[in-house]
Write a structure and sequence with these properties.
Strand order of the largest sheet: 1-2-3-4-8-7-9-10-11
CATH class of the largest domain: Alpha Beta
Number of strands: 17
Largest sheet: 9 strands, mixed
Strand content: 15-25%
Number of domains: 3
Structural class: alpha/beta
Helix content: 25-40%
Radius of gyration: 23 Å
Distance between the termini: 33 Å
Shape: elongated
CATH topology of the largest domain: Trna Endonuclease, Chain: A, domain 1
Number of helices: 10
Length: 300
């Protein structure tokens, strides 16, 4: 049984509704909508960006796609993010799935093949690619593509393939398999800080080898990531209008994902350290940048 911890965010305000810590699939950022086709590109882009920062898997759960009900157990996509039905999502969270990974792509439905397993089983049965191709009704080149993970099989071919070699040749549906399937295929969304001070601060920190991220629909306002996982830090602006719940969520998400949290305050208080984060009064960019670098490197 998988270990799962779920952190509920603010659905109407953030690009993700939940941060899920899954013992097998890692960190998952999920967004729930009624019709996945109606999810704005900007939200999808920021969901990918936040997932890249946290090294998480972005996932959309929905009831339908362009008005048509999502099929149970089938993986769809929108804005480069996997889309599954809400029922399928809850089933996969608990680890209850043994069926093949079936996905929709460009008007067709396909079954994910484990190329190395297919080649191994074909050779064990002393079948050439040409002989297997004849039995499947495809070309030898297509069999080579299956084995090299260039493409996957249609439902029709999948039925024949299973009758010949068994269901071991198919990838099993799981959150981890979905994560592998979409990993690295789509770049994170392009974002730039709306706040001029934050823009200058991130630019300064980039000169020290950090990759920076900016968020407008997340519990944090920016992120920094160095060469190692321990050098990942989130930045949260805090002022008189900041709701207490926002800071609580920023601290909770940062703590649970192994991310340092730096809170830049608008007050003139001295530098202070809380259990959940480091608070730095807003000041000259060079001074704030130096304190951030000292905190990240000193505890990294």
């Amino acid at each position: 049984m998988s270990s799962v911890k779920r952190i509920e965010l603010r659905p109407r305000k953030y690009c993700a509704d939940e941060v899920i810590l899954h013992s097998e699939a890692g960190i998952i950022l999920s967004k729930s909508v009624e019709d996945a086709a109606h999810l704005p590109r900007s939200i999808g882009g920021e969901l990918r960006t936040m997932s890249d920062f946290l090294e998480a898997t972005p996932l959309i759960t929905a009831e339908s796609m362009q008005g048509g009900e999502l099929e149970e157990g089938v993986v769809y996509s929108k804005h480069g993010i996997a889309v599954i039905s809400k029922k399928t999502f809850e089933r996969l969270i608990s680890g209850e799935s043994r069926e093949p990974l079936v996905y929709a792509h460009k008007g067709g439905v396909y079954v994910k093949v484990r190329g190395e397993v297919l080649r191994k089983l074909r050779e064990e049965r002393r079948l050439s690619r040409g002989e297997l191709a004849d039995k499947l009704g495809v070309t030898p080149r297509m069999v080579a593509n299956y084995e090299e993970n260039v493409c996957d099989v249609t439902l029709e071919v999948a039925v024949r393939l299973e009758s010949l070699l068994g269901d071991e040749v198919f990838e099993k549906l799981s959150l981890k398999a979905i994560s592998r399937m979409f990993a690295g295929k789509f770049p994170p969304g392009e974002t730039s800080p709306r706040d001029d001070y934050l823009r200058v601060l991130l630019s300064s920190l980039e000169k020290h080898g950090f990759k920076s991220y900016a968020f407008s629909r997340a519990p944090i306002d920016a992120g920094l990531k160095g060469c190692s996982e321990r050098s990942r830090a989130a930045i949260k602006k805090h002022g008189k209008e900041t709701e207490p719940r926002e800071l609580e969520l920023a601290a909770m998400v940062s703590d649970e994902t192994g991310t340092k949290l730096i809170v830049i305050t608008e007050t003139k208080e001295d530098l202070s350290v809380a259990d959940e984060y480091l608070a730095i009064p807003r000041g000259e960019v060079s001074d704030v940048s130096r304190k951030i670098l000292s905190y990240i490197r000193g505890s990294g």
